[in-house]
Specification:
The complex is a heterotrimer of chains A (about 150), B (about 725) and C (about 200). With about 150 residues, chain A is an alpha+beta fold. Chain A has 5 helices and 5 strands, in the order E-E-H-E-E-E-H-H-H-H. Chain A folds into 2 domains: about 80 residues, Roll (Ubiquitin-like (UB roll)), CATH 3.10.20.30; about 60 residues, DNA polymerase, domain 1, CATH 1.10.150.120. In chain A, strands 2-1-5-3-4 form a 5-stranded mixed sheet, sandwiched between helices. Chain A starts with a strand and ends in an 8-residue tail after the last helix. Chain B folds into 3 domains: about 200 residues, Aldehyde oxidase/xanthine dehydrogenase, molybdopterin binding domain (Aldehyde Oxidoreductase, domain 4, 2-Layer Sandwich); about 150 residues, Aldehyde Oxidoreductase, domain 4, CATH 3.30.365; about 325 residues, Aldehyde oxidase/xanthine dehydrogenase, molybdopterin binding domain (Aldehyde Oxidoreductase, domain 4, 2-Layer Sandwich). In chain B, the strands form 7 sheets. Chain B has a 7-stranded mixed sheet. A 5-stranded mixed sheet of chain B has the order 13-21-20-19-14, sandwiched between helices. Classes of the chains: A alpha+beta (about 150), B alpha+beta (about 725), C mainly alpha (about 200).
Chain lengths: ~150, ~725, ~200
């Protein structure tokens, strides 16, 4: 049995300790908001927070979550009230939406550490892939959530 | 086949039997003459059961179009609600059945793609909304004993103008359902529309920011188990032997199921299935295609290009003769576009529950009808025994028009007699795609006195794009998806001919966002740019000459020049490139501004898009499609390329098949619209990426003098620099 | 920051804090001439490890780490960050866990994954430069001889000899000298005066 906290509640799972946290979240805990994209920590669709730090759950064995606090997109806020979720709605960011859980979790972690990130800090921290190509609105939404302004010159 | 099952009466009975359901509207509408599928001869001439109005005032649109990210689950119901006069907050969508009344009328085929959802359904939804509105008004007017002409429908109420009396839709819907459906209802004037033309908040977005949106991969059904799959790595390979006992003792493993070219492992949990599939002792044959590689394919393309087997798709005048006569004055260039993978963020997956009598599917699909045909063929069941529940799609881009993964899930479910969710890993998804085929194009022009070509002869070599999604076998050297964009260019060139050779290759190919326009517009717009520079002319004004009689195209081109400050001098090191396209019934011009570093690191400063889709139904959703499309196009320009070795795909994941990231996206991506009332309605989902690659290549030429004639730019050493770089 | 991570960070701080008080006898002090050939030979063995991609990819001179046996810049715009542990909001530990991950092919070790400081960048250095840098407390994180050997016993250094498999199942290359032989050579080099090639 591996015990950890999931979205503020205790969880106990009976899984092979090497199982990626992603699949424990999805198959054992029914938290399917965290997505499988690449299985190789390349796309970020599976980003969750472990003890407040962004982690790509496809590449993290559940054993490493033992005793920690795990937050998924479902637990980021009540009623989509987190500023990043609100900004995502205001800027109408998602298209297919598949990458956006991980994108939002990555941005939420960045803003916690850098409430008003520079463009370079955004570029370095948000490396998730969006195949639809919603990056222009993602950048706007990050600035909206941070209360900063979008660059006006290319 | 489900083609003869449509029975609007029974359908209405089935759907209208619930106590809450009062009115369902069916409409008799003509099928398009452009129907292309072989099955169209048997097409029933009725669209029915699209709209349901319940006693609780809710209006439900039974939507046949899949939400792949394009926003259709907002715009189509908005079009209906507007015409109906419904309360937008009480308008919902529900998946339609897979049945004839819900097919795309242009080709009598149920699918979502080719940028056709609004093009094909908007007029019908307006008519359906208008008919329902007139029926509701008729009942209210009768109750009030007033003329229907004095009544209107607004916000879900029937209102009698002179008296101000009101009745809710739900109050009149039951009686309205007993009335005949008006054949020719009055369609509202544009000034009466409240939703169309406004940027509406997308209905699907709230669920996409809190993790609650259900994609195919998220489906859970009672008793469900999980399957992982390993395909024979080579195209045409098969399963030679496998040793099921090598994994059956592993935890959770239920079964090993062989398929013709793959083997699946079923387990209680996906990770158990996936790791068991990895551990499974299996040997695959390589099949007959091990000599197929990118290098051997390139030789075949080249040999065909220099060969004589062609079919002309368009010919006016005698362009080849004019080119031959021009001798050394003729201007000839070759252009290559590579194979590309769809790389949807959600890998292929399907959940199937198959018994002797019923096949139920939960699947992120763009191709409901093909899915049904495949399911019927694999199970031997009749269409009415097959139920397809489609979900949100984590990207489609054409990949999900196909049903190869559906057939696998069905076979696996039958084998284990349980509901099974099959998920492909990213590696399987990338290595077993139906790729956008590579093309090789030779363009030869005769420049006229003002530099503009008087003759253009084009030769295009490409495998099929359409066959995998087409109902019937296409003739030799015919593939309208491959040739579009070249054969129908708007440029005014007196003598024009396109010769096409459909290359037969053992690698699966199909349509991918931009379809034939992608490669063809890269070739044509690069070539036009080369002709402009050869004539010493500004590329934007050169294009104006070729569109001089085309006021609609000029308006788009001129606005692109204006919005991108085309004539404003740039700081040293920066340059602009322009490209133009008429695709998916939308006219588009895009301008890229970039600078090229010493190490060929390209910093894209801005992308400007101007589009004329005829009519713009939602400026917000429309712009989002074009903005994101332009960035999708940057991947195409710089990165996307699939290669083959020994009959198999080299790239396996996003490290080998990289896509544009946030840090590479330009800080400024703008979209501007022009409308042309009365013109055909155009699509906005596919066209956004189309002219970005040539605009980028043209800008790189303007910046450096180096012309790139094959994609991606990475092959020539160009990379995308971080947009925040100094 | 969580408990596990801060423990790793503290260890680094302690190492860096152990400054020149007990520093290497002196970079300037010449070894006894008889020992010099032995010392140089020992350093040659050490250098063969230091110049290997497993070490150089994180001992970079750049604002980013490198990857692979071809030492290409790390994909995904991965940055060094202010402390060598990655960018704010995207630490190395977002992807690199406490052990090599057989599921994803992402390497890991039982301390927080991070880069060596820029002062300890080894890329493009000649053997002499490497050697001088290695024993210069200003450029080696303030390490004494004993602390240098201690560094070689950290999980990240030991990882170089157990780099695991890539996602496709292939093994990453290991340095051309076995770990034990490397440590032995390093000790010998230090004991024989830490001679540097000319």
């Amino acid at each position: 049995m591996i015990k950890f906290t999931i979205n503020g509640r205790p969880a106990e799972v009976d899984a092979d300790p090497d199982t990626p946290l992603l699949w424990v979240l999805r198959d054992d805990l029914g938290l399917t908001g965290t997505k499988f994209g690449c299985g190789a920590a390349l796309c970020g669709a599976c980003t969750v927070h472990i003890d407040g730090e962004p982690v790509r759950a496809c590449s993290r064995p559940v054993s490493e979550a033992a005793g920690r606090r795990v937050i998924t997109i479902e637990g980021l806020s009540e009623n989509r009230s987190h500023p990043v979720q609100q900004a995502w709605i205001a800027e109408q960011v998602p298209q297919c939406g598949y990458c956006q859980s991980g994108m939002i979790m990555a941005v939420a972690a960045l803003l916690k550490e850098r409430p008003q990130p520079s463009e370079a800090e955004i570029d370095a921290a948000i490396t998730n892939i969006c195949r639809c190509g919603t990056y222009a609105r993602i950048r706007k939404a990050i600035h909206r959530a941070a209360g900063t302004s979008v660059p006006q010159k290319g | 086949m489900s083609l003869h099952e449509a029975n609007p009466v029974s359908r209405r009975a089935v759907l209208g039997s619930g106590a809450a359901t009062a009115l369902m509207v069916g409409l008799r509408l003509p099928w398009s003459e452009r129907a292309a599928h072989a099955q169209s001869a048997a097409a029933p001439a009725e669209i029915g059961a699209w709209v349901r109005i319940s006693a609780d005032d809710t209006v439900t649109l039974l939507l046949s179009q899949v939400e792949i990210g394009q926003g259709i689950s907002t715009t189509l119901p908005a079009i209906l609600a507007d015409e109906l006069g419904a309360d937008w907050a009480r308008v919902h969508v529900e998946n339609s059945p897979v049945a004839a009344p819900y097919r795309n009328p242009r080709i009598n085929w149920m699918f979502t793609g080719n940028s056709e959802s609004i093009q094909s359904f908007a007029p019908h939804l307006r008519k359906a909304g208008a008919a329902a509105r007139e029926m509701l008004i008729a009942v209210a007017a009768k109750r009030w004993n007033v003329s229907p002409d004095t009544c209107g429908a607004e916000n879900g109420q029937i209102v009698h103008g002179p008296s101000g009396r009101q009745l809710k839709f739900g109050d009149v819907a039951v009686d309205a359902a007993r009335l005949p459906v008006p054949a020719d209802p009055r369609i509202k004037g544009d000034t009466d529309l409240r939703l169309v033309g406004r940027a509406l908040p997308r209905r699907d977005i709230p669920a996409k920011v809190d993790g609650s949106a259900v994609f195919g991969i998220d489906v859970k059904v009672p008793g469900m188990v999980h399957a992982a799959i390993r395909h024979a790595p080579a195209f045409g390979g098969t399963v030679a032997a496998f040793d099921a006992p090598s994994v059956t003792q592993r935890p959770g493993v239920i079964a090993v199921v062989p398929l013709q070219n793959a083997v699946a492992v079923v387990a209680e949990r996906f990770w158990q299935a996936k790791t068991a599939a990895d551990a499974l002792s299996v040997t695959f044959t390589d099949g007959p295609n091990t000599d197929v590689s990118s290098a051997t394919l390139a030789e075949r393309y080249r040999a065909v290009l220099n060969g004589t087997e062609w079919k002309a798709t368009t010919s006016r005048g005698d362009a080849p003769a004019a080119v031959a006569a021009a001798g050394a004055q003729a201007f000839t260039r070759d252009y290559d576009s590579p194979f590309q993978a769809h790389a949807t963020m959600e890998p292929m997956n399907c959940t199937a529950s198959v018994t002797a009598d019923v096949c139920e599917l939960w699947v992120p699909t763009q191709g409901q009808q093909l899915t049904e045909i495949v399911a019927a063929s694999v199970t031997g069941l009749k269409p009415e025994q097959i139920k397809i529940n489609w979900t949100y799609c984590g990207g489609g881009f054409g990949r999900r028009l196909l049903a190869d993964f559906v057939a696998q899930a069905i076979v696996i479910s039958k084998a284990v007699e349980r509901p099974v969710k099959l998920i492909w890993t990213r590696e399987e998804d990338m290595a077993h795609d139906f790729y956008r085929p590579a093309t090789l194009t030779r363009l030869s022009a005769v420049p006229g006195a003002n530099g503009a070509p008087t003759a253009l002869a084009a030769r295009l070599v490409s495998p099929t794009q359409l066959q995998a999604v087409n109902g019937s076998k296409l003739p030799d050297h015919v593939d309208p998806r491959v040739t579009e964009g070249l054969e129908d260019t708007r440029y005014d060139i007196a003598d024009f001919r396109l010769d096409y050779h459909k290359l037969d290759i053992p690698i699966p190919t199909s349509v991918l966002r931009t379809t034939g326009f992608g490669p063809n517009i890269f070739a044509l717009e690069s070539f036009i740019d080369e002709l402009a520079h050869a004539a010493g002319q500004d590329p934007y004004r050169f294009r104006r000459k070729l569109l001089a009689k085309d006021s609609r195209a000029l308006r788009v081109l001129d606005l692109a020049a204006e919005k991108s400050d085309w004539d404003k001098p740039l700081p040293k090191g920066r340059a602009r490139g322009i490209a133009f396209c008429d695709g998916f019934e939308t006219i588009i011009a895009q301008v890229v501004e970039l600078s090229v570093g010493a190490d060929k690191a390209v910093r894209v400063h801005s992308l400007t898009t101007v589009a004329d889709p005829g009519r713009l139904f939602d400026p917000g959703i429309g712009a989002s499609n074009l903005e994101a499309g332009a960035l999708f196009g940057l991947s195409s320009a710089f990165k996307s390329k699939i290669t083959f070795e020994a009959g198999r795909t080299v790239q396996q994941n996003f490290d080998g098949y990289d896509l544009v990231h946030l840090w590479e996206a330009p800080p400024i991506v703008t979209t501007h619209f022009v409308e042309s009332p009365g013109e055909k309605i155009g699509g906005l989902g596919e066209v956004g990426p189309v002219s970005i690659p040539p605009a980028v290549a043209n800008a790189i030429f303007a910046a450096t003098g180096a012309r790139v004639r094959s994609l991606p730019l990475a092959d020539h050493g160009y990379t995308l620099a971080a947009s925040s770089a100094a | 920051m969580n408990r596990h991570f801060s423990a790793g960070a503290a260890a680094v701080v302690i190492l860096i804090g152990a400054l020149a008080a007990t520093a290497l006898r002196s970079a300037a002090q010449s070894p006894a001439s008889a020992d010099r050939p032995v010392s140089l030979a020992a350093f040659d063995t050490v250098a063969r490890v230091l110049t290997h991609p497993r070490c150089q990819n994180c001992h970079t001179q750049t604002g980013y780490p490198r990857q692979g046996d071809d030492r290409h810049p790390h994909a995904m715009n991965v940055q060094r960050g202010s402390d060598g542990h990655g960018a704010a909001g995207q630490r190395c530990t977002a992807c690199h866990g406490r052990a090599n991950n057989s599921a994803s092919g992402v390497p890991g070790a039982d301390e927080d994954w991070h880069l060596a400081p820029l002062s300890m960048g080894w890329e493009g250095r000649t053997p002499r430069e490497l050697c001088l840098g290695l024993k210069d407390p200003a450029r080696n994180g303030g390490r004494t001889g004993a602390k240098i050997i201690e560094h070689f016993d950290t999980p990240l250094v030991r990882w170089g000899w157990n780099p695991g498999r890539r996602a496709d199942g292939t093994l990453r290359a290991v340095p051309p000298v076995a770990y034990a032989a490397f440590v032995t050579a390093a000790k010998r080099w230090l004991e024989t005066g830490a001679a540097c090639p000319d």
